[in-house]
Amino acid sequence: MTGEWECLVTTIVGDGEYLYSNRSKQSVAFYDGVRAMAMDDIGRLLYIAPQFTGRWILGEKLTIYGAIGWGWLRYKETVKGSGLGELSGTTNALGGNFTVGLEYRLSSVVGMSVDLGLIGGEIGKLKVDNTGLQATIREAL
Asked: Which InterPro entries match (predicted)?
């Protein structure tokens, strides 16, 4: 039995931009025996960065790709209490990301892919804005 196997590997290097946004909300209800109070905690993460990318085409159907970048990472958290006003904090940092993936082409314009990515950064101390909370306290007094 004889056979022939050929693997064509083509490398494509480029650049691009990456935008990631995430919002999470958590609600907690408290009851102290006299009154009930609800608190909402909303966290938002925004990341914008230029990307340096590479694609390695393996044969006719398979591509391995990767990207790396550094950019602006912003985190904002807001806590709202029923009847207590709002407290929020924001911080900005340098962030980085790394992505690696595998794509299978079904046709020349359609494919399926799976990738794994990581965004990270050192988020420092939040700059707190408590003007909403202070206004509520002034109204109560």
From this structure: OMP/PagP_B-barrel (IPR011250)
